[in-house]
Amino acid sequence: MTDTLKINDCWNKIGVWSNGDNRCEKLDNVIHCYNCDIYSNAGRSLLNRESPEGYGDDWADILASGKKLKSKNLQSAVVFRLGSEWLSLPVSIINEITLLKNIYDIPHNHNKKIRGMVNIRGELVICMSLGNLLGVEKPDDDFIDDEHSINRLITIREDNGYIVFPVSEIDGIVHYEKEKLATAPDTIRNSTTNLIDGVTIVNDKNIGCIDHVALLAEIAGNLR
């Protein structure tokens, strides 16, 4: 067994990370402990110390098990709420997420799946109603035009540029394996088009994972 390396951690006692009244006299010249040779030498000693017994074998086991657990179909997706439903979209197709902005009506538009136009960085972008595309009931009830609200706009890439749609709130990023998804509930299944791959459960949330290929095809069909 390798002996425990003893170092003088003066930076915690009289240095910049100390809460005491005593102050190292070297700080007048070096300003910060990062610039002191004592701090540098201590770090070098830690890096150069002898590895403990079994260290290499332990890491070999960890790396080997990691390769076994890694899935080729692991997906990364942004989780958001739409009305009362939790949904997700792959990170790869999302361009940006911004505060909710004014949505301007399009004259003579009778398609409820097209909300209007939104100004994104000086460019007018078509705003879709994801709730209407997915068949989510009352998706727009808590969309508030307020910079302090938790409502957001998600911008995604599509063949001809970008599309935006409002969501009730953003939750974060989730990772899941597509082959392990559960069947989507009826509340987020459209009667004519199924845009949900399945459901993953994270922190007691049933998150509907959107099939982005089918979604983009549905958007394109509504824009023709």
Q: What labels describe this entry?
A:
6 helices, five-stranded mixed β-sheet, single chain, alpha+beta, 31% strand, OB fold (Dihydrolipoamide Acetyltransferase, E2P), 224 residues, elongated, 2 domains, 10 strands
Report on this structure.
By secondary structure, this protein is α+β, with helices and mostly antiparallel strands. The protein folds into two domains: 10-68, no CATH class; 74-223, OB fold (Dihydrolipoamide Acetyltransferase, E2P) (Beta Barrel), CATH 2.40.50. The chain is 23% helix and 31% strand. It has helices at 10-13, 27-30, 37-48, 55-69, 130-134, 212-223; strands at 74-82, 85-90, 94-99, 114-120, 123-128, 152-158, 161-167, 169-177, 196-202, 205-210. The relative contact order is 0.14. The model has no long low-confidence stretch (mean pLDDT 82).
Helices and strands, with pairings:
Layout: H1 10-13, H2 27-30, H3 37-48, H4 55-69, E1 74-82, E2 85-90, E3 94-99, E4 114-120, E5 123-128, H5 130-134, E6 152-158, E7 161-167, E8 169-177, E9 196-202, E10 205-210, H6 212-223
Parallel strand pairs: 2-10, 5-7
Antiparallel strand pairs: 1-2, 1-8, 3-6, 4-5, 6-7, 9-10
